[in-house]
Specification:
binds 6-O-phosphono-alpha-D-fructofuranose; five-stranded mixed β-sheet; 17 strands; magnesium ion binding; Fructose-1,6-Bisphosphatase, Chain A, domain 1; 2 domains; D-Maltodextrin-Binding Protein, domain 2
């Protein structure tokens, strides 16, 4: 077996040899990785750790919080606020940004996360994950007098300096990009360290596997119905090949499968909530996942435009998501644009 390098060595080499990440960003990513290790320990305890079930509270999205949602959120806040590398954090579980307390030095980075994505799967022992995204404060002048605000987070996904997720599944795997492709690190529990198990991950441009929640079919817009009907028609239809379908209902697990063997993932607009563009959140779900997918040679749009080009206006804004194998995403996007042109 070739010598596998550690996450620390990968990050030091990205800093030293590629000059891609400054020391404070390396520190930030090491701390996030350590927080994910802590979350993995709680997740893996399951019923033995009094961590399952509902927390009897609701988050800003109006979703019932699981105990593990709150535990994961607290682990990430506690791990990151003292280091001096961050100015503020934002989380799916918190309505407002969390500014680093005055007792600690403020840094130039902004960290956003969905601390535990796929919560509905926690109690049934299906893979879940932590998603994170890193931006730089727009005005990173350390002597800046104006305090960090939510407005500082309103940057397009193309401005991310790091993005990744940790999937808590049969393996605990951290997947990361700092703009030099996608690397994967599997947790070696005996040493408690992250060991590189893949680098320069590449998604096949074509696929025979699509991921969407089929129970919403009657609510979809015509372009999505057209694409999925063609997949279901298989080799007898216009696509000339049969398709397989997967839906884990944990974005992290579905994206991990796509990074590993290709595929296309869709959570499109549907008429259940016509005034919302989709279910998934732009800042800490779609943006980090879209950058990972693009860094691996895939594509990510909201059905009409590149997700990473979307200029956010609200911290928790939602977005339609179509991501994965490039040729499939381009086909679905073309169907949306054709439908728009025909209107
Ligand atoms: P549905 C999990 O709640 C999540 O935010 C994503 O991880 C996942 O892809 C999606 O929602 C599942 O949604 O409507 O199929 O339960």
């Amino acid at each position: 077996m070739s010598h596998r390098i550690s996450l620390t060595r990968y990050l030091v080499e990205q800093q030293r040899e590629h000059g891609r990440i400054p020391p404070e960003l390396r520190l930030l990513l090491e701390i996030v990785a350590r927080a994910c290790k802590r979350i993995a320990i709680s997740v893996n305890k399951g019923a033995l750790g009094e961590v399952l079930g509902s927390a009897e509270s609701e988050n800003v999205q109006g979703e019932v919080q699981k105990k593990l949602d709150i535990i994961a959120n607290e682990v990430l806040i506690d791990a990151n606020e003292w280091g001096g590398h961050l100015a503020a954090m934002a989380s799916e579980e918190m309505e407002n940004i969390h500014v680093v307390p005055n007792r600690y030095p403020q840094g130039e980075y902004l960290l956003m996360f969905d601390p535990l994505d796929g919560s509905s799967n926690i109690d049934v022992n299906v893979s879940i994950g932590t998603i994170f995204s890193v931006l730089k404060k727009p005005n990173d002048d350390p002597k800046a007098i104006e305090p960090v605000s939510e407005q500082d987070f309103m940057q397009a996904g193309s401005q991310q300096v790091a993005a990744g997720y940790c999937v808590y599944g049969p393996q605990t795997t951290l997947v990361l990009t700092v703009g030099d492709g996608v690397a994967m690190f599997t947790l070696d529990r005996e040493q408690g360290s992250w060991v590189m198990t893949a680098d320069q991950v590449s998604i096949p441009e074509d696929t025979k596997e699509f991921a969407i929640n089929m129970s919403n079919m009657r609510h979809w817009d015509q372009p999505v119905k057209r694409y999925v009907d063609e997949c279901l028609a298989g080799k007898d239809g216009v696509r000339g090949k049969d398709f397989n379908m997967r839906w884990i209902a944990s974005m992290v697990a579905d994206v991990h499968r796509i990074l590993t063997r290709g595929g296309v993932f869709m959570y499109p607009w549907d008429k259940r909530e016509p005034n919302k563009p989709g279910k998934l959140r732009l800042m800490y779900e779609a943006n980090p996942m879209s950058w990972l997918i693009e860094q691996a040679g895939g594509a990510a749009t909201n059905g009409r435009q590149r997700i990473l080009d979307i200029k956010p206006t609200e911290l928790h804004q939602r977005v339609s998501v179509v991501l994965g194998s490039k040729n499939e995403v381009e086909r679905i996007t073309a169907y949306h644009l054709e439908a728009d042109a025909a209107q």
